[in-house]
Each structure stands twice: as structure tokens, then as C-alpha cells.
Amino acid sequence: MIEGNPLPQGAGYAVVLGLGFVFAFGMMAITAMLRRYQKEIMTAEEFATAGRSISTSLVSVGCVSSWTWAATLLTSTAQAYKNGISGGFWYGAGASVQVMLFSALAIKARQIAPESHTFLEIITARYGKLCGNVYTFYALATNILVSAMLLTGASATINFLTGMNTIACLFLLPIGVVLYILYGGVKSVFITDYIHTIVIIAILFTFAFQVYATSPLLGSPGYVWEKLMELGETEPIEGNYKGSYLTFHSHNGGIFLIINLCGNFAAVFLDSGYFQKSVAASTKAILPGYVLGGLAWIAIPVLISTTMGLGCRVLETLPEFIYYPRGLTSAEASAGLVLPAAAYTLLGKGGAVASLLLVFMAFTSAMSAEIVAVSSIFTFDIYKGQVNPLATGKQLMLANYISVIGFTLAMVGFGIGLFESGVSLGFLYNFMGVIIAPAVLPFTLTLFWKGQNTVAAIVSPILGSIFAIIGWLAAAKGLYGSVSYDNLFEDNVMLTGNLIALCSPGIFAPLLTFVFKQQNFDFDTLKTQIHRVDESEEILQAEHIDPQDLELNPVQSAVTISKRLGEITKSQVLQEESTYLAKASTLANWGCLFFFLVFIIVWPMPMFGSNYIFSKKFFTGWVVVWIIWLFFTAFVVIVLPLYEARRGIYTTCRGIYWDLSGQSHKLREWQQEHPEQLHVVQSQISATVHNGKSDDVIVGNIDAELDSDTPEK
């Protein structure tokens, strides 16, 4: 048993501040290179949507990274530690299907409102501002709860590993994230996701091979299986078949699955960060991006829980365990300390450092997505939607900056309040669905059912929340005699609240719709109500274009360019996209049903119903399958993005070489000759104007490029 913390306080500050600033300035440098060599212009649209051009692989990376919270790593291992092998699988399966199911919502939203920035714009345009305000509450509540889990989980782990003051950790963790978001917007989030995911996967491989191949303490699936079978006899899990750690027949595991499904439907469908990724994605990247992201992500929680959650149970019996002769308490497990305790026992200080990096990477990548999501809501739904509908691009950028800083400070304060009140990561994770799940079904029906009326859209989630909270509190009182923190955290109590929250609007919404008459909404009207921000003038200024080159005054030039680009976009690009989206929507709907049946019914339920206890060979095969699956994850999120970005990487590297060798004029000439390689269509205007051509020729060039067979069109 060790005295004090595995690592010194300085290690905590070095990672939180030192590594945080290294990543921040690294992302800022990459963003600066993109602006110089790829002609990216940071406007309000670019800040929030990344030019709507993100590739399939980066969408997948964004899903994997954003969904790899501290909870993914810490709660999944805690579930395997608590409920056995089913706990980790139920976490992975119960949270991956939502990402794949969200592809259907994302495609539908792109179909009916191709120029939207947030899902709240669609709700407001269909039902009005009052309804928009209701769903703004649920969207912000989602972002707040997710951010709170990120902060509490990361700070608790860093405090455990280094002894770093928890409040100082809460203050300092978001600083680096805020810096690179302010400079690079949502594009910097995607790039950061890529880098962080590489580190996370490398550490997961290290842990897996340590537990199941090289560690002198464990070293093989067979040894782990033998020790778990012994533990099933000496320390059985209550509610599991024969008390086994190696069975899917687990009462508490099944309860967790339902809680997990309810909460994560809300955490994905109502998290504007996921909608933000679909907005930033190119049209053809939405379906494969989300499906590949969900398939790639599931290996992370299942393997880490099978490795470190079950591994921690075995390590507790050994003298080398960090707390030997006692094991972890239920409070320590709920706080997310299973992973770092197992890592330190296996690898000493190296394991502690790996855990520290793992949690830090998970925090920064997921937190950045939450901050950008909130900034988009504040900028486009609150400021532009209700305060200043005629806001210019510069005003929207200022609103973005204010919201990024303001939300971060608010979350730091909220995180301190949770810490002082003793609320754990596990409690927040299970409680999440009680608060936000009531809006899931009404929002989904907003996109798919033209009949749902305004009354149903407004009232059904509110009623759902009221009934869910009443049911949650009543279950604690009825089952355990009092309403207390511990009783409210009980599995059956959380199950009651989550089920009522998700399912009750399924009764209220249709009932209210038929009582107050169906709406019969025309979805095509959204295409004329929701528009991108006209920032043509800002783009001209950013590109140092003299409006006289267009033989027009500044206002006329901006309007002319905007109108002509709009006509081209609507008449050619959107028509082509509409045909593709109709096919993709059908495929997504059937694909969602298929993946749900596979991961929730066909694969696990036979093991649950048959009371099967894993044999040594089956357990070994289970471990090998998930290690191979993690190799697939590595290919999707590490190799594929490099392949898809090969042209951009080549262009940037060549530009850097030209700058360093004093041949920068070649870069300018190349950009004029190859405008189709530039990131935003508006930049093509700049490249052509600088070549001395009129706006009539510009439009002709863009027409030609749109007809060309290039990935950028």
C-alpha cells in the first residue's frame, strides 16, 4: 500500500498547464498554417461550420473523440468492476448505437434545412420562439451536465494521481481548450480530436497488452479468467448468475443498460455538439462518418473495461495492489478511480502517468466540442435569433468569443459547487437522463413527423420532466424510506426516473397532437427560412480585395457575389445533394435498425437468457476480438484521416517549403492556377480577382469547378 499520491503535485500542474498550453499553441500554429496555405478565412460561418466540408474520417474521429469522455474510460471500468464483464459491454453497446442512430437525424436535418447551424434553428422556424426557448433549455442542460461530468471526472482522477488541488484543477483544465477554440473555431476541435485520439488509443493498447500478455502480475487471459472464477466463489456479485464476474446474466447490469440507453439518447440527440459535427460535415460524409464513428468507438469502452475493470478486481487480491489489503470502496469506484488504481498497480509511476494523460486527453477533446456547441447556440439561437437578427459577421464572431469565455467560467463555478457538495461522476452520469431525456422523442418527431403541433412540442417534454423527477423522488422514498443522495443513486431509483423521462413524451406528444389537431407542416419552408450568414464583405476585406477590381462599390460587390454564389449553390449543388440525401436517409433508417438489433438484441441477449458463464477459451476469444476491433478503430481514426487529407497535407507542406526557401511567389501563382484546391468557395473569388478577372468570369469559373469531378465541389 502506498503512502500519499502516486505522482507529485508538479506532475499534475505540468500536464494541466504545460501540456495544455503546448496543445493550445500547437493547434493555433496548425490553424495559422491552414489560413495561409489553404486560404481559410475565419468568419462566423467558418468558426461554427468549418465551411461544411469536413471529411468522413474526421467526422468519425470527432464522434470517437467527443464520445470518449472521462466517463467512457472511468465509468465503463467502474461498471465492469461492479457488475462483471457485462457492465463494460452494456456501456459500449448502450452508448454506441445512439451515435449510429443519430446519422438518420443528421441526414434528415440536412435534407429539410441544409443551411442550419443548430437544431434549435429548425425547432424555432417550425414552432416559434417560445418552443425554441424550451428546447434551448434542454440543449444547454445537456451541455452543462456533460461538461460537469468531464470536469468532475478529470479533476477527481488528477487529484487522486498527483494530489493537485481539485479546485485549482477545475480552474486550470479548460484554459488551453479555450485558447485554441478562440483562435481556430470548430475546425481546431476536429484537428485536436485527431491528435488526442492517437494518444488515447496508444495508451489503451499498452494497458491491454500489459494485462493480457506481458505483466508479471497478470499476463494472460487464462490467468485473469482463473482468478475471476475464484472471486465468483469467494466474493460473488449480488444479482449475477451464480455470483459470476463472467456472465451476462446480471440484474444490475441489465438495469444499467436501460439507464445507459435513456441517458445517452439524450446526451447524443440533444447535444448540439453532435449536430455541429453534422453541420460541419460534407453531405456525403454524414452517414459513413457517424456509422464508422459508432463502430470504431465501441471498442474503447468495452476493451478498457474488460482490461482495467476486471483486471482491478484480480489485482485487489495481490499484495502489490495500491490499497492492499483492502480493495476500492464503492465511493472510490463511483468517483472513477478503478482505472488509475489498476494502472498504477500494473505499471507503477508509468501507469499513473499514462492514466493522467488518458484522462487529460479525454477531457480536452470532449470539452472543446461542448464549448463550441454552446457558443453556436448562444450566437445563432440567442443573439442572432432573438437579440439582433441583422447581426453582421463581425458581431457574430464577438458573440462567439464572449460565449466561449462565459460558458467556461460558468462551468468552472458549477464544477466547484459539485465538488464541494460531494456529487460524483457516477451520480451525474446516471442522473443525466432524468433531466434531459424528455426532449428526445419530441425533437425526433419534429424532424420526421409533419403532424406534431406546437402544443405537443412545447408541453410534452415539460410534462415528461415533471413526471420523471416526481417518479425518481417517489421511488427513493417508496423503496428505501427516505430521499437522500445515496438512495437517489440506487439503480432501481435511477431506472425509474430515466424510463419515465424517455418514454412518457411518447404518450404525451401524440395525445396532445390529436387533441389540438395535427399541424401538417411543409418541411420545404425551412429551406427559405434558415440561411447562412452573408459575410461576403468580410471575406473581401480578409482577402484584401479592392472592390474597384469588380467595378462595383463595396456593398454591391458583396451582394452580387453572394447572390450569384447562392444561385449556383441552390440550383446545382443542393439539387445534387438532395438526390443523394434521399437515398442516404433510407439507408440510414434501415442501418440504424440493423445496428440496434445486433448490439442490443442479437449479440448479447442469448448470453443473458442462457445464463452462460464464459469458459476460458470463450473469454480468451472475447479479449482477442476486442483487441482486433481496437486495431480497426486505429485504422478509422488514425490512418484514414491521413489518406483523405493527403492533398491538403501536401499543399501545406509545399507552402511551408516555399516559405522557408524564399519561393513564396510560387505559392501565390499555384493558388491562382488551382482555385479548386482552396478550402472555402468564397476564397475562389479572391484567387480569381487577384488574377484580374471580373465577377462574371468568377461565376463561370465556379460553375466549371462545380461541374468538375473534384472532392471539394
TrEMBL record:
Transmembrane regions listed in the UniProt entry: 12-34, 54-76, 88-107, 135-154, 160-182, 194-213, 254-275, 287-310, 353-378, 398-419, 425-448, 455-475, 495-516, 587-606, 618-640
GO molecular function terms attached to this record: putrescine transmembrane transporter activity; spermidine transmembrane transporter activity; urea transmembrane transporter activity
Pfam families per UniProt: SSF (PF00474)
UniProt GO cellular component terms: plasma membrane
Entry keyword set: Membrane, Transmembrane, Transmembrane helix, Transport
Primary site of residence: membrane
Subcellular location: Membrane
Membrane topology qualifier: Multi-pass membrane protein
Superkingdom to which the source organism belongs: Eukaryota
Coiled coil start-end: none
Family (UniProt): Belongs to the sodium:solute symporter (SSF) (TC 2.A.21) family.
Record PANTHER family: PTHR46154, UREA ACTIVE TRANSPORTER
Entry protein name: Urea active transporter
